[in-house]
Amino acid sequence: METTALEHRFNQKIEREEKIEPKDWMPEDYRKNNIRQISQHAHSEIVGMLPEANWITRAPSLRRKVALLAKVQDEAGHGLYLYSAAETLGTDREEMIDDLHSGKAKYSSIFNYPTTTWADIGAIGWLVDGAAITNQVALCRTSYGPYARAMVKICKEESFHQRQGYEIMCAMAFGTPEQKAMAQDALNRWWWPSLMMFGPTDGDSVHSQKSMDWKIKRYSNDELRQEFVDKTVAQAEYLGLTIPDPDLTYNDETGHYSFGEIDWKEFYQVISGNGPCNKERIEARRKAHEDGAWVREAANAFAQKRANQQVA
Amino acid sequence: MSNQNWPLFEVFIRSKNGLSHKHVGSLHAADAAMAIENARDVYCRRNEGVSIWVVPSTQIVASDPEDAEALYEPAKDKIYRHPTFYTVPDEVGHM
Ligand SMILES: [Fe+2]
Ligand SMILES: [Fe+2]
Question: If you write DSSP's letter for every residue of A194-251 in order, what string do you get?
Answer without folding.
Answer: HHHTT-S-GGG-SSHHHHHHTTSSSS-HHHHHHHHHHHHHHHHHHHT---S-TT-EEE
